[in-house]
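SEQUENCE-TO-STRUCTURE ENTRY
===========================
What this section holds: a protein sequence and its matching fold, both as plain text.
Tokens: labelled as protein backbone structure tokens, with as many entries as the chain has residues.
Question of interest: how does this chain fold, as expressed in backbone structure tokens?
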Amino acid sequence: MSLLFLCLGNICRSMLARGIATQIIQEQKLPLIVDGAGISSYHEGESAHPPIIALAKRHGIDLTPFRSKPISQELASRFDCIVAMDESNIRSLRELGVLHPNVCKLGDFGLQGVDIPDPYTYTQEKDLEEVYALIDLGVKNLLNSVHA
């Protein structure tokens, strides 16, 4: 099973989801592959947004090996499921003409369908921690559902 996390720029939410999932996969030795991508190519090749790197580090997760990349049909085709962070990501995916039979939203996994807010402009640690908590719970629920 392989999962591609998707957000706008692939430097905040999808990168954080990938980091959380990678840690769980390694700890539990799950047979899963995860990666991340962004709708936009604006941040292509960049590492995670510095406040997100610091947030992940506080939770024992190292995001520094990851680099942002834009979604493409070729990339999407390599994964069993695309996990978007919000409805806008799903609409944008369709607008880009990227087709995939399994697109879902992270918020659909134990989070009552919420959109994960984009923390790019957040400056308060408590706001970043709230986003972390949503992504962490969603990823745990998602991995439990695909590995059950």
